[in-house]
Fold these 2 entries.
Entry 1:
Amino acid sequence: MSDLRELYQSVILDHNRKPRNFGAPAGSNRHAEGHNPLCGDHLSVHLRLVDGIVEDAGFEGHGCAISKASASLMTEAVKGRSATDVEKLFQSFHDMVTSDPRSEPWTEKSEDLGKLAVFGGVREFPMRVKCATLCWHTLRSALADGGEVSTE
Amino acid sequence: MSYDVAAVRKDFPILGREVHGKPLVFLDSAASAQKPSAVVEAMSDLYLRHYANVHRGVYQLSLEATEMLEAVRDKVAAFLGAGDRREIVFVRNATEALNLVAYSYGRQHVQAGDEVLVTHMEHHANFVPWQVLCEERGARLRVAPIDDRGALILEEFEKLLSPRTKLAAFAHVSNVLGTVNPVRELSRLCRERGIPTVIDGAQAVPHQHVDVGAIGCDFYTFSGHKLFGPTGVGVLWGRAELLEAMPPFLTGGSMIESVTLERTTFAGIPQRFEAGTPDIGCIVGLGAAIDYVEGLGLDAITAYERELLTYTEAQLATVPGLRMLGTAPHKAAVMSLVMDDVHPHDLGTILDREGVAVRTGHHCAQPLMERFGVPATARASLALYNDEADVDALVRALHVAREVFAA
């Protein structure tokens, strides 16, 4: 049960039940769709991008607790950041969830992951990494001017 | 003699292992079944003592391998109640068998304005080939509806049969709902109108006796790996007169009569549909798998699984917030589960940590998922080696999932 608690931390369960930034924010001008054909997850990410800064972010769609909570926390984390900053944040997040659980414990790198660190438990569940990263890939596609991404 | 599940379990060494420190509880046989030692040993015996290419050499080893392979053709013919061994075509899996019929028979007979009838509960393997065929031909794919319990609505199926219907394709048993379709009745309705029938039997053959003559269908398909045999071999049974009139699907070696620079004439059936070296080892393994289930007795397996399904349904009913899709009156031991507030994917992860292997996702049946308004389910499926202890472990793990998500 302990590694399940590590994965399903209370912050994740809370964001799963009450996703933040659900829906397209007012004046959004960037949008992308993401699919995970393996599990049928589908989400869209909407951004209001002004002068290279993510002024607002939102998402819609359905999926498992990990994917919904990840999208919810991501939209909170990227607000107010520049596209370059968002990319750095993505890299840190990606490193965290894909690091080898048998190696040294993962420690936060230069970029402050803040609340996103609750996804550290995902690395113990390789089958669930795509659930946590689908929203990020979709966000990067939206920043790169939209389109569709798929985890497959 | 009563069915001795403890003895059966001993035939499957993998069931003795642990997963995440818990005893393995394997409830995903509808995706692919585990293998008894006898299957692995039969394949080893071929490779270690008798192996050579088949249908070619004049030497002893090739003769032995050919005899072993052709003996399985006889075995499969008897297993399906087929009168003629030439009606058994070895393919890779049921998907390939269905594609063979769609490409060969379908492209020969389905023209613009025609219709092909399928049901709403089909696996993509018995849906997409027909959809693609219809698109290509300018034909129309008709879909027979199912009711809320997941049973096919017979009157609607019948209404959709018309002079334009050139073929009807349906599952014997649904891989998601477990619904057992009235295949005799469906085949009769089609036969009366001269419409050929194709049955996807992948989920039926591991659980019940199948007799294609009694069913009265025209094509029947299944995969070896769901029947406790190896991956890489499947079977197409087709009526000889239909197969004989069909063009090849794949061409190349083994399937020819003679080849000149100008033209090729094709071999008779079944060789015409078996281009290239077949998966000899897997075909031999399939033969051992058929021996295995026939040794236990298919009727005994059906009776045992029916009892276990009744037990399972009663146990699952004790789990709060749990719902089962597919409650047709005639159903096999496939439980598609949906738990309130817990996505099937999360459920699958939690069950796995408890040692319980179930399939999560859309089960290659997206139109069916849409019909029930869910993106996915967690599916537990039972087979001849499962017992009440497996069901109890599933129920305990479902309670753990409720606890995790109640936090």
Note: The CA atoms of residues 306 and 333 of chain B lie 7 Å apart.
Entry 2:
Amino acid sequence: MPNLESAKRFTAAFFEREDDLIAGAAEARLAGFEVYDVYTPFPVHGMDRAVALPPSRLTWIAFLAGALGLVFGLTLQVWTSAYDWPLNVGGKPFNSFPLFIPVTFELTVLFSGLIAIGVLFARNRMWLFSKRRVFERVTDDRFVLVLKQSDASFDIDKAVRLFSRHNAINVVEGDQFV
Amino acid sequence: MAASLEQTKPTGIVNSELPRKPITFEIAHPVYSKLRNPLILGHKSNAEVTRDICQLLDPKPGRGWWISLSISLVLLAVGVVATVHTVTTGIGTWGLNRTVGWAFDITNFVFWIGIGHAGTFISAILFLFNQKWRTSVNRSAEAMTLIAVMCAGLFPIIHMGRPWLFYWVLPYPNTRGTLWVNFRSPLLWDFFAISTYFTISAVFWYLGLVPDLATARDRTKSKLRQALYRVMSLGWNGSNRTWSRYETVYTVLAALATPLVISVHSIVSFDFATSLIPGWHSTIFPPYFVAGAVFSGFAMVMTLMILVRRLMHLEDYITPQHLENMCKVALLTGSIVGLAYVTEIFIGLYSGNPNEIFVIINRSLGPYAWAYWIMFGCNALVSQLFWFKKLRTSIPAIFVISILINIGMWFERFVIIVTSLHRDFLPSSWAMYTPTITEVGLLVGSFGLFFTMFLIFLRLFPVISINEVKGVLRYAKP
């Protein structure tokens, strides 16, 4: 997440088609503009590459959470069945390792899935009473590209020229974003 | 910080209404092929998709919906009466006896769990295989999964006799000396498998729903709905960073749900396969059950989708192409089921074990032969009709066949359970099993619960995944 403490102004370009958005974003980035974020009604594939967004590390979270579930599941079953109160069930060994696999698997999946989605919501700051505003029509059919005007050298005319080459329907500048 | 950008509206307009080129559809698309048909008919734009799906939510429900809901509620009421009768009087209200200690209830349980599998198959497995056509049906198929698993879960809980103590199957420190649960029992695995399956399916479904809830939030005119969607959409604003993480986690969940769904019905089959009853004690059970589950689930999805597309006018979204694809999955899984039936017969007869041989002969020629042949006919034979393109593209034919498959798959579970039990090793204890009216009431009630919840889902949430459909709009369109 970029640090916006110092940033003052933003430029938002509105598009109607995802191809224009991708091309516009990629060109803006190559032209030296700083892309703050892109707002789209559906996941636009190729967008991450166009704005050079690194792949998410959430897969690692899911993996570690799964590993935690695996260890928890096995420990729980071995400890309760073989150590805390060993019960003879049908003459099976107290530590019936192969029979513990199904529950271990289920707990691995459960931990991994729930923690991954919990971290996703936390990372995106999605929660029940979020007061975030949304660009108009962005959940419908508008694609919005927001540039950060990081310093005085920002050339708004250049940005407008660039985006109109890519069929932007509107370019808006605002300074109350921060 | 990041959130503050969205909190304010842009001021000063620099340049509105730039000159632009007219928009045409002539753009090369990576999946364009002359051999493929468009997934969504009618040359929809993104805005039209939003409008088409969202307009199903706001207006007052029509007469058809109310009539369907009333019928479902009556069925549900029957189930409530049957449940109250069972719980207050006891399991003696069922037709079980010493020989057949497990019958109708577990049949319904396995049937409903199986129905659920198609939803996960569509949402997770087809997602991993990049099958774009899933986008039109995944939302309702997943809702079907959740509801079916709820219906399934009720049966073992009611069968416990004291359902309010169902939490005893959880391994928690308790006052009974901390007597732990028996982790070696497939019935306990079942509990873990089904609760995990339900949780992960619910989370997966909800995650897919979040962006669409935001769309509904931004469009609905009803204050109440807006409040609901606002809370449930968690402040979704379509940011690409969010989308990127979202898709990562969505893929992770799909990758988790894929082995999960296979494990669930495998574990359900372990309830039978780990016992020593001839007809149950068989290594073929896990794949046989999983294929059967996907088969029955697809039949149910097709039945529901045919109704939904007709009643909600979604013909452009759920096209004959979608139904044909589902028919192909049903054909494959139905053939696997048919192969499993034949393999069971062969292995039983070839085993040299008199009890196994007896079970096979008793199943197909004994007093429950009618049920066996309904099962065999409806599953192994009727599904073969999908080889004919005429039939798998004819919607009335699909509807009839899918209902026959549903019936056949219910009978499959009945046959497996009852015919294996009712004539056991000792001829003096042979018995017949007939369900009582209470048990039939429970089955009827579960259908009532299923359709009541499905109808409420249709009115409350976007039936089709709006954001995913927008992503495939230009699929195979020149």
Note: Residues 20 and 84 of chain A are 64 Å apart (CA to CA).
